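To assess whether the prediction recovers the assembly geometry, we first specified each molecular entity separately, as shown.
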Amino acid sequence: MSIIKVSISDAKVANHPHRLRTTGLGSCVGIVLYDNQRKMAGMAHIMLPESTMARRGDLNLHKYADTAIEYVYEELITKGMKKQAMKAMIAGGAQMFQSKSANEMMRIGPRNVEAVKKELSSRGIPLVAEDTGGTNGRTIEFDIGSSELSVKTVAKGAKTLR
Amino acid sequence: MTAELGKFHLDVLKEIGNIGAGHGATALSSLLDRTIDMKVPEVRVAGFDEVTEMTGGAEEIVVTTYLRMTGDAPATMFFILPPDQADYFTSEMTGIRDGSFKEMNPGTMKVSAAQELGNILAGSYLSALSDFTKLDLEPSVPELAVDMFGAIVSSGLIEVSNVTDEVIIIETILVDPEKDEEINGYFLLLPDPGSYKTIFHALGVPVDED
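The predicted structure of the complete assembly is given in tokenized form:
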């Protein structure tokens, strides 16, 4: 078993017995697409809601909710996952700073969550569990074998989504 | 973004870190009534993953003051303290020994002391920067957060991330000369992509137009 690290603006897919992990989610959202029968999963750590926000041509596909979900989805389908078996869990999308004087970009957390949900529902992928919003950073780790997502925070301890 | 910047430009940004953090260090010295020194600032061009893994890594708990700067040259600034250092400073300031950022139970007095500390330091950094460049820079009300480094610092990358996958960071470390050069805290300044030209122009430094 090894822990596969997913960085910020990054996406990976893996099989049992591995785990997928991403650290320090603030306003970013960690997305897990998985199939508990095939024991296969993909994880993305997105920063922004939509690739149409990009002000330049050379897109980093893993940075945006829409393109990152598309990437992980296609990778999993290519590796043999059935669309009907695909499920999702998400965590993150916090608002780390509350400042009213801060610009609209600071409310990016809730917008990220919204964009992720919209993208999942448009693909008909059921959202099984989520731990989103609030004002805390999160570290998540998905155990592909048990389909459990552990969510760790600094101030509010840890929980397991299943 | 980075292709346009030569070594000379990076040196100018280093000087900005010098002047800003120098004033911050002086403010901290007088607040604590002891000498606080600073290291030579580092200017790095880094990918987002490198930024979030800086220092102790994305999961490391930090006590951070965040400030958004608007006006002529928009930027994001963080003043970051390791929890034990925040405990030390706030105990010195309040005389209260109980409670700790390290244990996540600092209490309201230490939290407001940390807030005050961040306000003073970030404020002196920015006013020095504003004086030096003669630019109109308006700081937001500083905010304090105690959380994972990666979760906090990624907030400062959002503005940049729409344009590029790299950021220029001006990092200045403060040290306590009496405590074996232990790191006291550090400033991170992340200018928005469009702000470099404004800063260079204000300082009379030529930039290649693209």
